[in-house]
Write a structure and sequence with these properties.
By secondary structure, the protein is α/β, with parallel strands linked by helices. It has 12 helices and 13 strands. Strands 3-2-1-4-5-6-11 form a 7-stranded parallel sheet, with helices on both faces.
Length: 432
């Protein structure tokens, strides 16, 4: 039979002896340091070092004591101190009065920030970069040049406070920065209808997630440039920030409208869930120099057509309304929002409202009174009215637009005239 291991619960098991620690040796705390010093003649080296140090300090020459003077400062002392302060202020980097976190005490200077501007080679981004560089910040422009142009920022090449990275925000980016202006996204119908999947899913969702992740990792403040398109074809006029909009989620413009609405959602989720400092701006129609000439937006369309002696194309009956702000007003609003203490969203736009026919007449007055207007069928999902309520921006940011349409349009026309006729000269020279 096989052997069995039988355990009888009722039998008493042997109890092992209890553990008793060894008695501590006396003088152990003294014995170990003494052994350490005596081992390998360490004590001898310590004594020799002490003797050499004493010898050096004893034989070293001493400086003669100067007679004690009065501690009360004299007029010459103040003069020398004042000249020294002026020289230090002149030799240090120039500072600017704009303050990101409140008022700076008198006499202190603002430290330049390290700022990322995605889409910084585009129309609005390049003007924002100009302002940030001018006030003394270090700016990193991130752009894939889908709609941006290197010519918009070439005047900063060679500036040690300017960097340009050709990069698509749908790929992660690791940088150490203080602020992030997230402008990267095609904003004109011609561009965002070219590849809706790329615009909506990749740029507005993945790109925004990447930039929010960067802000979370490095503790940077994040500003999202959203759009008035989040209101869709609004049933409320003018539009306030608390209005949720009237958007067709499956229309031809929905890739842009819903993409920006999703970007706002992600931004607020990171703010509430991860504690990221965020700001949200809803930008209304903006115009000015450096706009893409053929991007399909109404102001650039009218100006380019008038310069080329082409008819001004008005879609529908021309009674749709829009509000147009000059780019410098928008840049001022973005900076005030970033430096302020309010999350938003904030409407940034000019409440001056124009119909498309009124805009066409202003363009005629500015460029060519004989320009002809041509009517075409209206586009799908084209909003009928668009006008911002900027009460919140006025009260919380102290911001409102300054440049009227008839003041800003000639500046845009001058830029377009140079580029339109310059492009034609280049094309004719290549053909010849």
């Amino acid at each position: 039979m096989g052997s069995e291991l039988i355990y009888r619960r009722h039998e008493n098991q042997p109890v092992p002896d209890t553990y008793s620690p060894k008695q501590p040796k006396p003088w152990l705390a003294v014995e170990r340091p003494v052994r350490y010093l005596l081992r390998e003649q360490r004590l001898l080296f310590v004594l020799v070092g002490m003797a050499l140090a004493t010898l050096v300090f004893t034989l070293a020459p001493r400086a003669p004591l100067s007679p004690v003077k009065s501690t009360r400062p004299t007029t010459s002392d103040f003069t020398a101190l004042e000249s020294l302060s002026h020289r230090v202020a002149f030799e240090t980097q120039p500072s600017y009065s704009f303050n990101p976190g409140g008022k700076i005490p008198l006499g202190l200077k603002r430290k330049g920030l390290r700022i990322v501007v995605t889409g910084g080679a585009g129309f609005v981004g390049s003007h924002l970069v100009d302002r940030l560089i001018k006030r003394g910040d270090s700016v990193i422009v991130v752009d894939n040049f889908f709609t941006g142009r290197k010519e918009n920022v070439m005047h900063h090449f060679g500036n040690p406070r300017f960097e340009l990275i050709r990069h698509d925000v749908v790929e992660p980016l690791l940088l150490e920065v203080d602020q992030i202006y997230h402008l990267a996204c095609p904003a004109s119908p011609v561009h965002y209808k070219f590849n809706p999947c790329v615009v909506w899913h990749k740029t507005n969702v993945v790109g925004t997630l990447n930039m929010l992740g960067l802000a979370k990792r490095v503790g940077a403040r994040f500003l999202l440039t959203s759009t008035s398109e989040v209101y869709g074809d609004p049933l409320q006029h003018p539009q306030v920030e608390t209005y949720w909009g009237n958007v067709n989620p499956i229309g031809v413009r929905s890739c842009y409208d819903e993409g920006k609405r999703t970007a706002e959602t992600l931004t607020m989720d990171y703010h509430r869930g991860a504690g990221v400092e965020v700001r949200i701006a809803r930008i209304f129609n903006t115009y000015g120099p450096r706009m893409c000439i053929d991007d399909g937006r109404v102001v650039s369309n009218f100006v380019a057509q008038a310069l080329r002696k082409e008819p001004l194309t008005v879609y529908g009956d021309g009674k749709q309304t829009r509000s147009f702000q000059y780019v410098s007003d928008l840049v001022e609003g973005l900076i005030r929002l970033m430096e302020g203490e309010h999350v938003g969203p904030f409407n940034l736009g000019n409440p001056g409202e124009f119909t498309m026919l009124e805009l066409a007449k202003v363009v005629q007055e500015t460029i060519d009174p004989n320009a002809r207007i041509e009517f075409r069928p209206n586009t799908e999902d084209d909003p009928h009215k668009r006008k911002p309520d900027i009460t919140r921006a006025k009260e919380m940011l102290g911001w409102e637009p300054k440049v009227a349409l008839r003041q800003g349009l000639p500046l845009m026309v001058k830029d377009f005239r140079t580029r339109v006729f310059g492009d034609q000269k280049e094309a004719s020279s290549v053909a010849s």
